[in-house]
Write a structure and sequence with these properties.
Chains A, B, C, D, E, F: Keywords: Hydrolase, Manganese, Metal-binding. Six copies of one chain form a homohexamer. Chain A has 315 residues and is α/β, with parallel strands linked by helices. The first copy, chain A, is built from ten helices and eight strands. Chain A has one domain: Ureohydrolase domain (Arginase, Chain A). In chain A, helix 3 crosses helix 4 and helix 7 packs across helix 8. The relative contact order of chain A is 0.17.
Amino acid sequence: MSDPFFQPVSGFVLPRYAGVPTFMRLPLVTPDHPRFSEVEIGLVGAPWDAGTTNRPGPRHGPRQMRDASTMIRAEHPVSGTRPFERANCADVGDIGPNPASMPDTLERFTSFYKTLKSQGIRPLTIGGDHLCSLPILRGIAADEPLGMIHFDSHTDLYHSYFGGEMYTHGTPFRRAVEEGLLDPKRVIQIGIRGSMYGREDLDFAKSVGIRIVRIEEFFARGVADVMAEAVEVVGDRPCYVSYDIDFVDPAFAPGTGTPEVGGPTSFQALEVCRHLAGLDIRGADLVEVSPPFDPSGATAYLGANILFELLCAMV
Amino acid sequence: MSDPFFQPVSGFVLPRYAGVPTFMRLPLVTPDHPRFSEVEIGLVGAPWDAGTTNRPGPRHGPRQMRDASTMIRAEHPVSGTRPFERANCADVGDIGPNPASMPDTLERFTSFYKTLKSQGIRPLTIGGDHLCSLPILRGIAADEPLGMIHFDSHTDLYHSYFGGEMYTHGTPFRRAVEEGLLDPKRVIQIGIRGSMYGREDLDFAKSVGIRIVRIEEFFARGVADVMAEAVEVVGDRPCYVSYDIDFVDPAFAPGTGTPEVGGPTSFQALEVCRHLAGLDIRGADLVEVSPPFDPSGATAYLGANILFELLCAMV
Amino acid sequence: MSDPFFQPVSGFVLPRYAGVPTFMRLPLVTPDHPRFSEVEIGLVGAPWDAGTTNRPGPRHGPRQMRDASTMIRAEHPVSGTRPFERANCADVGDIGPNPASMPDTLERFTSFYKTLKSQGIRPLTIGGDHLCSLPILRGIAADEPLGMIHFDSHTDLYHSYFGGEMYTHGTPFRRAVEEGLLDPKRVIQIGIRGSMYGREDLDFAKSVGIRIVRIEEFFARGVADVMAEAVEVVGDRPCYVSYDIDFVDPAFAPGTGTPEVGGPTSFQALEVCRHLAGLDIRGADLVEVSPPFDPSGATAYLGANILFELLCAMV
Amino acid sequence: MSDPFFQPVSGFVLPRYAGVPTFMRLPLVTPDHPRFSEVEIGLVGAPWDAGTTNRPGPRHGPRQMRDASTMIRAEHPVSGTRPFERANCADVGDIGPNPASMPDTLERFTSFYKTLKSQGIRPLTIGGDHLCSLPILRGIAADEPLGMIHFDSHTDLYHSYFGGEMYTHGTPFRRAVEEGLLDPKRVIQIGIRGSMYGREDLDFAKSVGIRIVRIEEFFARGVADVMAEAVEVVGDRPCYVSYDIDFVDPAFAPGTGTPEVGGPTSFQALEVCRHLAGLDIRGADLVEVSPPFDPSGATAYLGANILFELLCAMV
Amino acid sequence: MSDPFFQPVSGFVLPRYAGVPTFMRLPLVTPDHPRFSEVEIGLVGAPWDAGTTNRPGPRHGPRQMRDASTMIRAEHPVSGTRPFERANCADVGDIGPNPASMPDTLERFTSFYKTLKSQGIRPLTIGGDHLCSLPILRGIAADEPLGMIHFDSHTDLYHSYFGGEMYTHGTPFRRAVEEGLLDPKRVIQIGIRGSMYGREDLDFAKSVGIRIVRIEEFFARGVADVMAEAVEVVGDRPCYVSYDIDFVDPAFAPGTGTPEVGGPTSFQALEVCRHLAGLDIRGADLVEVSPPFDPSGATAYLGANILFELLCAMV
Amino acid sequence: MSDPFFQPVSGFVLPRYAGVPTFMRLPLVTPDHPRFSEVEIGLVGAPWDAGTTNRPGPRHGPRQMRDASTMIRAEHPVSGTRPFERANCADVGDIGPNPASMPDTLERFTSFYKTLKSQGIRPLTIGGDHLCSLPILRGIAADEPLGMIHFDSHTDLYHSYFGGEMYTHGTPFRRAVEEGLLDPKRVIQIGIRGSMYGREDLDFAKSVGIRIVRIEEFFARGVADVMAEAVEVVGDRPCYVSYDIDFVDPAFAPGTGTPEVGGPTSFQALEVCRHLAGLDIRGADLVEVSPPFDPSGATAYLGANILFELLCAMV
């Protein structure tokens, strides 16, 4: 039974451009709010992009995504799921980053996610760059490695950049595997493409058992077949879903820092999420939405719909 | 035999960026023009968006569409149809709206379309938001309900908004059915998608017999199969074609007020129109092109090509 | 003595791009909030632009202004005023408009401002188009006509548009004078310019005693001299300040619907406000900021600084 | 007495965004129109930019200027001039260029202006790049050299480019002096600035008696003083006014191909024109408005107001 | 064995946004460079768009493409080809055009390509508009007609424009066939679409034996089947590959002057190139990338990837 | 006597949009170039913005500034200075940053500037954010504190951010004073404005003797008077010039991360530099140009002209 407090504002009542924007027009329930502990799924803003090796901007993602997500309505058009009636969902605010210190921010983020976990709140995070996924996993997977379904055009499995830097948006999952936060044999990466530095990341994936579905295989087999395999890879044990917006072709999602052409359509971008229902999802994220490179704001609209799909899969 | 007066200016003679832009570079033949009564298909500008519940802008649609439509040439590339040689086509100008009064504007529009009908001119309207379709139907369908093929991501079948408002761009076809302007059993809506408020519109559609083809069904069956059904639904009796640009995926048509991701490609956007030839089309419209949200102008280019497809289907 | 609750978040603590944006990062204290009655100055969002006769968009003003106003810091650089320590300031939310009904929205707005007045909250409104000023005045000036200092490139004193429409963004102050909400002898309009329809508005101004300072006079005399006169015109009795962003030259504020070239600089845009301190200001507004016509967002930054100047004048 | 046929459409009747756009909403009276010979001042579109040595785009100027000029109203705000009541003004259409042949286009343009002259129509031309001024002068100054007031950041007095090219937008007035179309002793150039290739153009100016007012002198002396000299330079004999939009600072007019920073404001841009009244102006132009480099369209708005100022000076 | 001198800078060492941009971060080896004669494949900038009949801008293509191409890495993701290790690749600079003279520029270009040919350098050209292909062919195909695989939405086979102009971007391949630079029986054009002037170009193609694959056939048969035919058409004799970016749908490549909707995706845009490996490619080009019409820069990113595909096919 | 090698390419020979862009079209002479030691003034790219506390982007500044600076010609329009004939000027390339490590990058930068100093090359740096000025000063002022003329809207004299971070773009000159790199009594800051956190930075300035000229004083006294004082403050001993583009009003320079409205015009932006001639300038920088926030690119054009002014002051 749904709690009226945790319901979004309807566009039939208040036009979508009106009101202070929160994620999906949900109530803002930050950790100091009296009803914080009642939240079941928390939409978290992670305005941090210090891991970016190329064009910056995802730090502005949460704010633009709040704006765009006011377009989301209450019911999934295919499954009929009404997520806000099935779980207490709330915007739990932004994690305050320290833009001048990577170690401090990693620590702040990890701590925030530990708090969520201790309260039984599953996080749906809006980045931020892909390095954000590392402190999320440190916060929620400390006691047990998770499986992961990872949508992306890049593996983010590199060892280091620029002469030994271990923490960039190209390395989070290498670190997560090394730290035992992910169970590589239950990790699948989908959509990988683009010209390559070399084979280092692929060799690592192979060596630890990560399954990579390149875009050619994705297009050849189709969404249903690939996602059936993905569901099998993670199995019925706890898992994480990480969604880099550059998984999608830049025609549909230009607002990102390292676009790779030749990707899926927006329909496929939604469709892949519809196969996640039923998994034991402990958290999910959507990262790398970069407003400064998105003149029309279209990327955030797509992102808002992906968030809604992820949310429907989590409830 | 084609009348030289009703021919567009060729891009071989005058570059496309030159000249006062009219729709498809056709002559401007407003109601006070001596040859008005000779027009057979009138391209009408409807610069009005007072029915918009979200982001405004379609009032600027006709002017931008005139500009973009100067790219259109004389012959259909597949069917070989040369529409300007088969019917007297003209830009019949814009209907003057009253931006401060919805009732007055509805009346002005209805009156304009009644005039067109009385002169035997079939209208191809460039909106404006989707509320424009209501006074068009009031003008041309007063004596006999029409069938309709409706391309859109939304049903526009809601009862009311904001506490009882009956006239918005989300309600025109509910009104049209209620007023007997459409024969709901000969109405088909194609491309419906996006998160939903609830089931009110779908329930209404079902109750009156409107056929809805959701986007998933559209993709699964393909254009040819869906359009064969559409043609069957409207049959050989008089019908209307209403085309909301948000039918198309926003990657191809970002310039619209309420984009819904996960839609058809531009190729499919054209392809669906190619199955309309042979129907008894009494009028058609393309609505919701919103220049302020289209930084590159790409939406208007697509719109101009859709207009040309609709025109080829009408001659 | 300042109340910690009513203080904005500092950019030294949380980066300006982080957090749910409220006006100037103040607490959000809507009418249902327990501390609503403690608010002394309420920043109000008025997302409504149905009075627009030309390019739409100010309905999106409050949201963009909230975002841009996160750049505002705590202290005025010249006067040293720290407004948040001198009055309880809060974002009191947006007034819910009815985009499909002008009468209903005028009523909703009037009612909201009556509530503010009854609670002793002085409003600083962020529009919306200039028609918003009418229901504001109806709400706060019902019992006693106010003087007004009005910055604008247009007089907004027309009788009607489009064949008799009395309510557009070109008529609010004609209505306000007729309704006895403004004392025309204590009204001054500054910055008027642009090609003219005719002399109707000027004749009306003259007939009721409104003082108009055209832009040529403004530039010739300078800010200090003109503002000294403005202060004298309104005197020490209650007054209102209405600021149309198109007062400023469009190079500094492109994001507006009816720009008029040849206006003041951004420095002058701020400077005029600095002469308002000490007046008995019962309310103020900043209107006509239109995000869709502002590719770089610069207009909202200027607007945020004007808001801060107005606020410092009000405390 | 004003002829109703030659009056623009009012914004009180038809909103400014509606209708097929002509210059200032005047009637379109091309040479084949029955009332062509009654036109006294013809607004001419010159969509040609083959003389551009740097960033292209002014070929799109006339179309965008028609759109923006729908903002112009009927009366000058300072002088009270109502130009449309004092002369028969009309949009006489675009001259058809040949984008692939400079000689052919020069010939087409010259011929068009000769026609205008033979009909007693004074041209107010909207470019196009600055090379357009040469065929204009060839058309209207063939029998008697004209004086010229020239607003620009560049002298356009170079001998040649790229190894001997005599016709570019950097050479028109060198040619015009050589061809006896301009009387260099009655030519004044105002606003010159920007880093320089060398002194070749300045030496030429000096050698033939052209007066150059650099921007530093312009700012130091002020508009009134400089323009008094300008009026004296051209005297009471026939003259031409050529206005390159890059005269204005790019903050006010970004949409141009070779912007030079450090220029006049939009107010000064208008003000200089107000001193032209009373001169014997045989033609005028506004050139180098380049829509592709003007994301917000602000340049065209300024341009439309400059056109109106020029028109008021011509009637 | 790869020469260290001819290797690109890695993004692991220097971030992609740093450094003076050359094509793919290769060394700049202009004709006066001591190692020029060692170059095997030369990436050539052709900043010239005088053949454009509509919207200009491709003159800015090479500079933007150099910037975007810094995103390219060293290895092809599917074939594993590492082109920079298989041939000495270099940025050989831009050919200096004469924007004011078409004949002079045609001559300059032809001469440059003759030089490349005489040095044994195969050119991969970055335009510039499609007229550039003509002097390229004059430079490299003078002694033996080439076959050609041509990706485009237009045939570019017209006889002339604007009353007899033989050199525009709509005529290069008509000229090339007439001049014996192409063997029409070994020419295939893929992706043709858009409304048509008439049948003149198609009739010419038919008369000389050029094979045209319209977009409908392309979509129906699929990339592999069409490309198998293409490979067969050109055979194992020397050929050229010409790639107009408007081959791709404008949602993926908006930055072009004459976009035609209804085209291939970015994935297909890459995929077609992967079938070219093994052909005897004597040169290739990518033309019509027009930065002024590409607000997000996405077209150049796609273009850079197409270039990389072409390069991998050439080594 | 000028060395032909160190001369820029002329726009009369090669159009400005052609060629690989280097700063002002000068030769690229990186440290490994044989003529490096002959360089007298080195234009340095500093693509690093890790000190940014708000909107990122200056890392892209050097590349865009190279592009825009191709507009610069050879001679100063007022002084007649031809800088490239008076000193060997060259683009010495970008310093490679480590975007993932602030300490490493500070070290790399310091080392680069030490090299320049040891070679007798005076640096004119193009940032990058304002933190870049710190390692520059560490490199060139290690042996003797410099005076400084600093144009900016912010003092950049804060102690720390975000709970103790000492290195951000708001702290460089605090550090420089503490480290003895600047002689505070010979430092003047001009243009300071915007709402303030508090008085901490001003108190520090006062305590060490830094002179601050607020924008109000700047406008009241005028450029000549303020700059006379500035010249007096630094005296005839060695000094540095640091120019933050946000010194200029955002209407003239929107592309920056923390714009402050109410600033100088572009003319004043150039004019202040013209008073620097004759000073003993050991280095200069232009920082905070942020391309992602500059839709029209106008900021870079202004920046290029400021660079040229600084260069003319340095020779």
